[in-house]
Amino acid sequence: MRKIVPLLILVLVLSACGPSGRTRSSLYPGMYEEHPVTLLVMPPINNTTKVEAKELLYTSISRPLAEAGYYVISPSLAMAVLRQESAYDAELFLDKPLRQFHDFFGADAVVFSVIETWAKRLNGIQTKIRYIIKSTVTDQVLFDRTCDLYLDLSVNSNTDPDKKQSLLAVLIDVAAGAINTALTDNIEAARKANYYIFQDLPVGKYDDLYMKDQDFAADPKDVSRTVK
Asked: What is 34-101 written as a DSSP string?
């Protein structure tokens, strides 16, 4: 009996870490070492032909970070200052020392985002976004994750699931899906991607689980999802 109890405890610990043993602390140790509190969100780096993707994404990044327990500098204030200081193009700073953002904004870390894909598909929206959080003190990358997300906006027809769809039913589905895609705000795709990106982010100082979530199981560094 004495041997069984320690064995059960070990099994529970391993289960909590997930089948792969990935935890938040193993993937993002820098977040626990540097304890960033204040975050500055930079305008997204847009590598697509969809010009409006930059603005669409920028408006949706701060909320999940604030909900995770971080103090996020006002995006509107940050944008105004960055434009005034000719620092709107985030790609100019991604691989450069970031101390100036610590001195000017009081930011402990800077949040970069890179839009690799943002495209309207037949029945949905495909996005691929990478997020990088870098320390303004050590320039260390504290968090780096990519989400390849397809937002499925297709509409199911009322045909019998046990029968093959007729050509008319297929065309109706395609048309309805296209209309739905056209009417759906692209910001929903960004919000979904943000959710999957930041769900494993170590929580900040203003969350009750601060410094208590090191052993939480974590998904792979790069994730791919199809969501409705």
From this structure: H---EEEEPPPEE-SS-TTHHHHHHHHHHHHHHHTT-EE--HHHHHHHHHHTT---GGGTTTS--HHH
Residues in a beta bridge with 14: none
pTM for this one? Answer: 0.80
What number does CATH give the domain 24-210+219-227? 3.40.50.10610
Q: Return the number of other C-beta atoms located less than 10 Å from residue 94's C-beta.
A: 15
Residue corresponding to tokens 């996005």 = 127
The closest of 37, 114, 105, 34 to 74, measured between CA atoms, is 105
Q: Is the dihedral of CA 11, 15, 16, 17 positive or negative?
A: positive
Alpha helix positions (H), 68-141: 75-84, 99-105
State the CB neighbour count (10 A cutoff) for residue 44: 25
Tokens of 93: 């700073």
pLDDT per residue rounded down to tens, the chain (228 residues): 555 544 444 444 444 444 468 999 999 999 999 999 999 999 999 999 998 899 889 989 999 999 999 999 999 899 899 889 888 899 999 999 999 999 999 999 999 999 999 998 888 899 999 999 999 999 999 999 999 999 998 865 444 555 455 655 555 555 555 544 443 458 888 999 999 999 999 999 999 999 999 999 999 999 999 998
**What are the sequence ranges of the domains in the chain?**
24-210+219-227
